[in-house]
Structure formats: C-alpha cells, structure tokens
Specification:
alpha+beta, NE0471 N-terminal domain-like, 3-stranded antiparallel sheet, 3 helices, GBBH-like_N, DUF971 domain-containing protein, GBBH-like_N_sf, metal-binding
C-alpha cells in the first residue's frame, strides 16, 4: 500500500456488524466485525511472532459464530487504530496498511466466492 493512503472516515455499525473505512484514494472498505476480531493483529491472537502479518481472509465471509461489538476506537499516532472489543480484548494495533491489506472487497480480494 502507498504510505500516503490513509483513512478519511471510519464508521462502525454494531447492529449491522460492519466497520467501514473510506480511504484517501477513494477506495471504500467494509469489514465484518467477526472477521476483524478473529484476525486481531496482536501477537497473542496471531499465536506468536512467527505468525505476525498472517491473516485468514475467509473469516470475513463465513457465518459468524460469535457476536462482537466495538466499544471504542482510539487512534494510535498517524498509522493505526486500537479497537476496544466488547469481549474485553484491546491488544491489537490495526495499522492502516494492515487494514488496507485485509480489505475483503472484490477488487482487493478477488478470490472470494
């Protein structure tokens, strides 16, 4: 991702189970909360440092087995957000480039069915 591409807007809908991001290059991303939570980038959720930056994109397309809600989002510098989940977890720092790489839209992830 181009380092100059940053979010211009972030919206959360806990009722629709979606986090939406509009990007400075005009792209629009919609993430299921289940997929985001299950792909938390923290070392504990990733299962160790060797698995950092590996994500399961299929989790954005499956029927959720748990209901997650975002209680708060905090910006970390100019490069990331920290999501406070309703299950008490808040260790993951979702960097802009990580979020853009995880975009599950047809254009970014054509492998989806």
């Amino acid at each position: 991702m181009d380092n100059d591409i940053t979010p211009t807007g972030i919206e959360v809908s806990n009722s629709e189970q979606i986090l939406e991001i509009d990007w400075s290059d005009g792209h629009h991303s919609e993430y299921s909360l289940f997929g985001l939570r299950k792909n938390c980038p923290c070392v504990m959720c990733r299962g160790g440092h060797g698995n950092m930056n590996t994500f399961d994109m299929e989790l954005f397309f499956v029927e959720p087995t748990q209901h997650f809600e975002i209680e708060n989002i905090e910006q970390i510098g100019n490069h990331a957000i920290k999501i406070f989940w309703n299950d008490g977890h808040n260790n993951g720092m979702y960097q802009w480039d990580t979020l853009r790489d995880m975009c599950p839209c047809q254009e970014c992830y054509p492998e989806q069915e």
